[in-house]
Amino acid sequence: MSNLPDNLKYAQSHEWVIVEEDNLVRVGITDFAQDQLGDLVYVQLPEIGRKVTANEQCAVVESVKTASDLFSPVSGEIVATNLLLTNEPELINDKPYSTWIFCVKADDLSTLDVLMTASAYQAYIA
């Protein structure tokens, strides 16, 4: 689990985040999270156009073991979801850092300042 991408930020709730152009925040779950969950069998994606606030539950991943809520790292509007996950949730298990789940058009990127760097997240999960 030591191969955490340095270009991402990490939440205590085990989401990863990358900020793209125009305040677009792409969100997935970490390798640690998918490993703890086990084989994913279902992803409940948020509705496009939904307004979310930072730390609001907005999606769910289900595995053979359990279900886990996913939280928006920022306030804004859901502008995209990864529809491939509807039929292939295991993509998250296979490639957790290249398989995003949803994108938020952020109202204010400063709320991401509380997220962890790769080294801080590594210490957190250790």
CATH architecture: Beta Barrel
Overall geometry comes to globular
- CATH fold type: OB fold (Dihydrolipoamide Acetyltransferase, E2P)
Highest-level CATH class = Mainly Beta
Are there runs of 5+ residues with pLDDT below 50, and where? none
In total, the number of strands is: 9
Number of domains: 1
Number of helices: 4
Class by helix and strand content?
Answer: alpha+beta
Largest sheet: 6 strands, antiparallel
CATH superfamily: RNA polymerase II/Efflux pump adaptor protein, barrel-sandwich hybrid domain
β-strand amount: 25-35%
Mean pLDDT metric: 96
Gist of the model:
The chain is of the alpha+beta class. It contains four helices and nine strands.
How would you describe the overall organization of this protein?
The chain is of the alpha+beta class and 126 residues long. The chain has a single domain (9-125), classed as RNA polymerase II/Efflux pump adaptor protein, barrel-sandwich hybrid domain (OB fold (Dihydrolipoamide Acetyltransferase, E2P)), CATH 2.40.50.100. It is built from four helices and nine strands; from the N terminus they run E-E-E-H-E-E-E-E-E-H-H-E-H. It has helices at 31-37, 84-87, 90-94, 118-125; strands at 9-10, 15-20, 24-29, 40-44, 51-52, 57-63, 67-71, 76-81, 102-106. The protein has a six-stranded antiparallel sheet with strand order 1-2-3-9-8-5. It starts with 8 loop residues before the first strand and ends with a helix.
